[in-house]
Amino acid sequence: MSSPTFANGTSDDLGNTSTINKTSFYICQDYNEYLQCDLTKNEFVGFSIGSTSEEITPITRDPNYVDGVNSKAVEFRDRYRDFIEISNNDAYKSDVFSISFWVKKIDAPIQSEPFAHVVSHTTFNQREGWFFNTNSAQEQAIRFGLTTNTGNEPIMSKPLQISNSSFTNIAATFNGSEIQLYRNGSLFDSIVYNGTYAPTQNLPVHIAIASFCSECNKFQGVVDDVRFYNRSLTSTEVSQLYINNNNYTFNGNESLPISSELVGHWTFDSTLNDSSINENNGQMLTMVSSMASSPDGRIFISEKNTGNIRILQNDTLLERPFAVINDSNVNWETGLLGLAIDPEFESNHFVYLYYSSTDIDDDPINRVVRFTEKDNQAYNMTVILDNIPSSRAFHAGGALAFGSDSLLYIGVGDSRNPNAPQNESSWAGKILRINKDGTIPRDNPFPYSPVYTMGHRNIFGIAFNEKAGIGIFTENGDKLYDEVNIIKEGGNYGFPTIQLENQHWKVSNTTIDIKPLRAFHNTIAPTQAIYYASDHFPYLKDTFLFGTYTGDIYSIEINNKTRELSSEINPHNDPESIVFEQHVQLENYPFESVVGLTQTPNGDIYYGGYHVHKLISIDVDNPQPILFPLRLEYPDRIIVDDVFAEIQKYVIVDIQNTDTQKQNDAQLNVSNSFSQLKIKIPKTLLSQVGNINTTVVSSTGDESTYNIRDYILEATSPRDNELSIPIPNNSTTVTIRIDGQNL
Ligand SMILES: [Ca+2]
Ligand SMILES: [Ca+2]
User: Fold this and answer.
1) How far, in Å, is the centroid of ligand 2 from the Cα of 645?
2) Distance from Cα 494 to the centre of ligand 2, integer Å
3) Residue 478 CA: which ligand is closest?
4) Which residues touch 675 (CB under 8 Å, ≥6 apart)?
């Protein structure tokens, strides 16, 4: 058999092309280390922009005090995700120091990942400070880590087992050249320190989570009597610390009291106050789940775990909660969830809440209730919709928003029931739509049912552009493909049997499901959504905003004018498409998730995780491109399988040639090519085009690679490179590689 060859020729020979009648768009997203290219509904661009914020208030709660080694101690549960923050203090910047605390395990399963920090004062890059972390989620042995600013990994101690029946005292001392780790007053590990130690300059001390983060792995256990000394204790002192937490008498003589150079001491005896001279009191932080502004500018805030709804008025968190829910079922993703303000709040003062509870059989449910606000207090709690499916811990949904029609839209998760989202009669995995009083609108798509859309996994954000009559909802995928969707009456959004978990929606080869407006390859975990119509941030005006658990605010501009849409996708004749996407980078450090998001009537944007922040400015002068749109046009007989790219290096397109009348010719012949693939590549992706190679598998199975530069028709504009690439006769699969330059 002769191996395939290309005939010599020029682009003038490319006469024999077939009709181009398919168009598809790919978006390549910059994930720093790589680009991920995915099929998308239309062509749009995206940028990352910087911002500044101001911290308005922490969201705090009372700790759960339990019996300690000495009076009381604080219990941490991983599922509640609460932690203690102690603000940074110059006293913790000593080059020599000691830390002591008591710790006990809890007999309860742990779902969080390993390496939870127990007591932590280190930077994200682990070049400054120290920390105690767990070696694994189940074993929970504790290691001491001391960082070095030489660029090496932290120096770690051996894992020290702790008990679930009694408290273990852990003490670490550092004298500049040696680390000693003690267990119950006895030396457990001794390490020569050959790094260069730099104390943490700018971060608080955290207990039960890493100090650089409010959304890292949580420690589960009980912690008591945390001490920080700005000197290295002797082994005798450490053993005395174990025997007696109070004062230390040396050889019967009054000597160094153990309080000498004790610069932080938190007894947790029903208080988080610091009993050392520094009086640097700790606070227990808890998570915001939703925020909603009333027309007078007050911000209502639901706290997921505490049962409290709070009010932020003139940037001050009112001491007395607006409402307290006593029957909330609190777990990972359950508790107090969505909040909504009635569109006629000024006359009726109605505030709505979606929260998790249990029914009379103690089964988990969610319900929507309504309060009437008067003088910052809630009255007349009324159940609007009850027995919404829930789960013990996950996928409880919680988005709540009024539509342009003044009806209440409710995002309900699948409650971890895979059969529910495609079952019309279940409320799980749905968006529900009800009248304000809980009755069912007559024009709902399923008679006598609140179900408005179906096929959802979990939803935290719904928002409406009243003028255009467009509503969106965010949807949380598993590890891959979170979504933004347009709300369509009676729409089926595919989960889990049509659009599969962790798969791009293109695998669903049907037209019964609505494809997402936008699918994000890597997890962003979208949260609360709003439509922003204010001039306060002109750059964000008339866009949908939503928070992300990964700590940014996304802005998406949607147009419902008819635009060119991919012919590879059945768009359900939906003209809506994305015009513009921006990622507002929030530079909060310690890192903070954006769970709640709201705008005040004057256009201020507030958001919250464990603190409430106000967006102050966005850096509109320096947008960084992060989305690179590719446009491909090709004949019916071509199928584009996949696209790969690396910035300024290459674009690779994998295609299949399904021509059933391939020329019965062993020769692959570019000059007599019958098909062309046209591709438009933005210059931000490849500023110039160099080598172009195709690797061709012929119908007889031969594989060869050719430089086809001479056969390419090229056009460039200031913004894009456009290439027409011949697809050789008799090919079955073709890989086209377009390099950024000649190698
Ligand atoms: Ca105590
Ligand atoms: Ca979907």
Assistant:
1) 25
2) 5
3) 2
4) 17, 18, 634, 635, 637, 638, 657, 659, 726, 727
Q: What are phi and psi of 733, to 5 degrees?
A: -125, 145
Closest ligand to Cα 500: 2
Give the SS3 label for residue 26.
strand
Ligand nearest to the CA of 505: 2
Residues sharing a CB contact under 8 Å with residue 343, sequence separation 6 or more, in sequence order: 402, 406
pLDDT in tens, 516-559: 999 999 999 999 999 999 999 999 999 999 999 999 999 999 98
pLDDT digits (tens, 9 = 90+) for 430-450: 999 999 999 999 999 999 999
Number of other residues whose CB lies within 10 A of the CB of residue 103: 25
Overall residue count recorded for the chain in this entry: 743
Which bound ligand lies closest to the C-alpha atom of 70?
Answer: 1
Ligand 1 midpoint to CA 103 (Å): 11
Q: If 0-12 CB within 10 Å is exposed, 13-18 middle and 19+ buried, where does residue 319 land?
A: exposed
Domains, the chain, with CATH or none: 5-18+636-740 (2.60.40), 61-285 (2.60.120.200), 288-625 (2.120.10.30)
Tell me the whole-structure pTM to 2 decimals: 0.93
d(CA 432, ligand 2 centre) in Å: 16
- Tell me the CA–centroid distance for residue 493 and ligand 2, in Å: 4
pLDDT at site 377: 98
Element (H, E) at 521: strand 518-522
Tell me, in angstroms, the distance from the centre of ligand 1 to residue 203's CA: 25
Cα of 268 from ligand 1 centre, angstroms: 5
Q: Give 506's DSSP letter.
A: G
Q: What is the reported pLDDT for 602?
A: 97
Nearest ligand to the C-alpha atom of residue 458: 2
Joined together, the tokens standing for residue 540 give 């964000």
User: What is the Cα–Cα distance from 117 to 224, expressed in whole angstroms?
Assistant: 15
Amino acid at 169: N
- Please list, in sequence order, all residues whose beta carbon lies within 8 angstroms of the beta carbon of residue 361, skipping any fewer than 6 positions away: none
